[in-house]
Design brief:
The structure is a homodimer. By secondary structure, chain A is of the alpha+beta class. The first copy, chain A, has 13 helices and twelve strands. The first copy, chain A, has helices at 50-53, 55-59, 62-65, 70-76, 84-96, 114-122, 135-147, 161-174, 197-209, 215-230, 241-248, 283-297, 301-311; strands at residues 5-11, 14-27, 32-36, 42-43, 183-185, 191-193, 195-196, 254-258, 262-267, 272-278, 313-316, 322-328. In chain A, strands 1, 2, 3, 8, 9, 10, 11 and 12 form an eight-stranded antiparallel sheet that branches. The longest helix of chain A has 16 residues, at 215-230. The first copy, chain A, is globular. The two termini of chain A are 22 Å apart. At the A-B interface, strand 2, strand 4, helix 6, strand 5 and strand 12 of A face strand 2, strand 4, helix 6, strand 5 and strand 12 of B. Chains A, B: One of its GO terms (molecular function) is asparaginase activity. Chains A, B: InterPro entries: Asparaginase_II. Chains A, B: It is an enzyme of class 3 (hydrolase).
């Protein structure tokens, strides 16, 4: 059974492309309050769970020991755009632990944003691991290892103590199974685990309310979510969906993208978590899906309008001529 | 009724993303010899029909008048990578008609390939319309206008004589209807028309055999297809799918990509045209689909192996670690 079409892209008044997917919203008690498509199939949440993966950074005391505030914690949860501020802060986090870019095991890639990359190249910038969109998360892992007295070398591996702590946190939050049998390798080389969409959404709901979590974990989880909402630029970057979603209503929306069409979000005031997966892995569709689901859940009218503007918008070509629209289907309206 | 899943992307041994679509192969008589999915729905073939859109360049005598050889004709059919060779040749084509980059109405964008763009930025390169992946096609349009004594200004518009010639050629080749009612605006601002997939495949089959075409058009069509196969680098660029597909067996495969998951191809020796459309618009899937359909049609074993290697391959992350595979499903095997 195919998942429903949740997003359409039009041209000249016709639907040119279609994105299928599944979407779910869950409260902190685990109750599903919205669901479309097959949400039982395990999916890799990828970078959308970086806020969960950042728990050991706070819980271990590393964040406090190294003097990290909201920005550093937000960057540890980020898939950042490689803008100069992101790169500098990742370097500063490593320096706090007495390390540098050489400690990062995420690999190198040019910032995905063409303007950022070409500006960097034009000014003679040299590509380093700090520019990897995951460098903040990896800097956090290095800090956890150093603070706990482990060698950071190999911190990306399944058997390294840091990944063990991450796995424990993920399991506690989502209630799902995390093991070698559900494990894949992420783009930045750390383990990523296939889990059902509602488990991920439930985990984010719990992060906002603390329900079912030990007090220390509840406190750390809340601190992470609040850090991201306070510093949305450090979770993504200029014009990015995560940043825009969190800037709509400061403190009211948490949002984090993941590769291959995953997007997670939370509404802390309502204690609700959201997770979507676009079947085909398209980011443009996942952004629309998560914004549309959030729009169905919020009561504030201005916020709802802002979410709807991200869930549906016109598309222009290189000359700025409108060629069509991206819109969610009735299933998400 | 959903189209079948034709391509899967795996991670850690699981399917992470799925691409649905339709694919068809048609001979020059219009007989469908392979078909998957709903091929009756009109689709925008986008840049995949640039070789058809280049017919007026040859038929008008402009190509001969300006001394264009295979490279210039191939570039007129290209969605090029903006590499220095492409940019220089587009400029030379315009110069032959006494024009320059200012005549191009395609808009500007950085070359899509990050290495090409960052190398260009690092060496102080300035972005011009010549870098637009469609600049070769647009240079061809400008040449047609100039050669026929029309002002090239507004050559991108539906009512300009050049677009009238393009429309006539498309209609003759595909047998489909081309009018304002089926018209959308392409990324480079020229009209693009929604037509059924088999009509496009049939048009490419006719381009290779000349069947049903006036002698002059048949000759021009064959010259265009041969120019592209002779100069595959000028149809796309380094490591690009069109280029790789045509390099597999020189003179035996024609291939051209289009935005939003369209890919067209032809096997001149068999007089067969192929057209695929990935429902969600993904290029990675369209590339696999068209290679897989071609692999089903060819008899040469080495060529078939080469096509299969494009239809299915491993995927590595930033550290070069294999994270999964892209593969076609049984529907295309």
């Amino acid at each position: 059974m195919a998942n429903p079409v949740l997003v359409e892209v039009t041209r000249g008044g016709r639907v040119e492309s279609r994105h299928r997917g599944a979407a779910v919203a869950v409260d902190a008690a685990g109750q599903i309050i919205f669901s479309k498509g097959d949400t039982s199939a395990p999916i890799f949440p990828r970078s959308a769970v970086k806020a969960m993966q950042a728990l050991p950074l706070v819980e271990s005391g590393a964040a406090d020991a190294y003097g990290f505030g909201d920005r550093e914690i937000a960057l540890a949860c980020s898939s950042h755009s490689g803008q100069p501020e992101h790169v500098a802060l990742a370097a500063a986090m490593l320096k706090a632990a007495g390390r540098d870019a050489d400690a990062l095991e995420c690999g190198c890639h040019w910032p995905f944003n063409m303007k950022v990359s070409t500006r960097m190249a034009a000014s003679g910038g040299k590509l380093t691991t700090l520019h990897n969109n995951c460098s903040g998360k990896h800097a956090g892992f290095v800090c956890v290892a150093c603070h706990l007295g482990h060698s950071p070398a190999g911190y990306i591996n399944y058997d390294h103590p840091v990944q063990g702590l991450v796995r424990d946190a993920l399991g506690d939050l989502t209630g799902a199974h995390y093991g070698v049998d559900t494990c894949g390798t992420d783009g930045c080389s750390i383990p990523t685990y296939a889990v059902p969409l509602p488990a991920v959404a439930h985990g984010f709901a719990k992060m906002t309310t603390g329900e079912g979590l030990a007090p220390a974990r509840a406190k750390a989880a809340r601190r992470i979510i609040e850090a991201c909402m306070a510093e949305p630029f450090y979770v993504a970057g200029s014009k990015r969906a995560c940043t825009r979603l969190m800037e709509l209503a400061p403190g009211k929306v948490f949002a984090k993208t993941g590769a291959e069409g995953v997007f997670c979000a939370a509404l802390p005031e309502q204690g609700v978590g959201v997770a979507v997966k676009c079947d085909d892995g398209a980011t443009r569709a996942a952004e629309a899906m998560v914004a549309a689901v959030l729009a169905l859940l919020v009561e504030d009218e201005a916020l709802r309008d802002g979410l709807r503007a991200i869930a549906g918008h016109s598309i222009s070509n290189w000359n700025g001529i409108e060629t069509g629209h991206l819109r969610v289907t009735e299933a998400l309206l």
